[in-house]
């Protein structure tokens, strides 16, 4: 039933009725009436579903073929695991500009949220997601490789290691970028996975902030 699926999705995401109402731009009573069965539908269902990272069809009828499963999300190597798991919980998809100044999920303004998506791999509570833009991280030589449109999961609490895939904001830039981290004895560098990309290697030495480590990706088929 709608009320059960709505409550399930909200609790999986770990937010209150009040927070869901705020993010969806509806009144708290709208959420309450849907969850207690007083209302069996709402004109705001599409917006509520968007916030929860599901579809309106799933909320209404339990039908949804676009939800990532654990098998479909590929975890990334070269990361130090977090002590928190949160497997299966939802994380926000945000813009690359927002990622450059991202602090926590709790302080994320509602107008900077694109949607919520489930993250089946282990992650901390401040993990967020980004949609890959461009081909700089397409690797013609094998895996890992990231195509334009892929969703990547970024954990700010992971400790980056040599060859970790990271989201970085360079000094003077208004948005974050996605690259591979290389740690050498003389410092740290970031590089694209695509050998044909025009920007080859950039040394970072106090002129960049690592916003998080990429822990997995979701690719549409």
Automatic annotation (TrEMBL):
Pfam families in the cross-refs:
HTH_3 (PF01381), Peptidase_S24 (PF00717)
The record's section on CDD domains has:
HTH_XRE, S24_LexA-like
Top-level taxon: Bacteria
Ranges for domain HTH cro/C1-type come to 6-59
- Single GO molecular function: DNA binding
Give the protein name, as stated in the record.
Peptidase S24
In its UniProt entry, the species of origin is given as: Ignatzschineria cameli
* Lineage of origin: Bacteria, Pseudomonadati, Pseudomonadota, Gammaproteobacteria, Cardiobacteriales
């Amino acid at each position: 039933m709608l009320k059960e699926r709505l409550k399930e999705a909200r609790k999986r995401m770990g937010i209150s009725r009040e927070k869901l109402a705020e993010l969806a731009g509806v009144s708290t009573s709208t959420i309450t009436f849907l969850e207690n069965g007083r209302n069996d539908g709402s004109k705001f269902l599409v917006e509520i579903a968007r916030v929860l990272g599901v579809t309106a069809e799933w909320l209404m009828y339990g039908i949804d073929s676009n939800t990532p499963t654990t098998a479909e999300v590929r975890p990334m190597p070269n990361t130090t695991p977090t002590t928190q798991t949160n497997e299966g919980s939802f994380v926000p998809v945000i813009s690359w500009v927002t990622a450059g100044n991202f602090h926590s999920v709790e302080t994320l303004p509602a107008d900077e949220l694109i949607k919520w998506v489930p993250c089946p791999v282990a992650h901390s509570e401040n993990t967020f997601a980004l949609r890959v833009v461009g081909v700089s991280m397409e690797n013609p030589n094998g895996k890992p490789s990231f195509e334009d449109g892929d969703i990547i999961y970024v954990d700010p609490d992971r400790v980056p290691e040599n060859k970790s895939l990271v989201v970085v904001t360079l000094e003077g830039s208004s948005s974050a970028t996605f690259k591979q981290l290389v740690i050498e004895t003389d410092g740290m560098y970031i590089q694209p996975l695509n050998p044909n990309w025009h920007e080859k290697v950039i040394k970072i030495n106090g002129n960049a902030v690592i916003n998080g480590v990429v822990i997995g990706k979701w690719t549409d088929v």
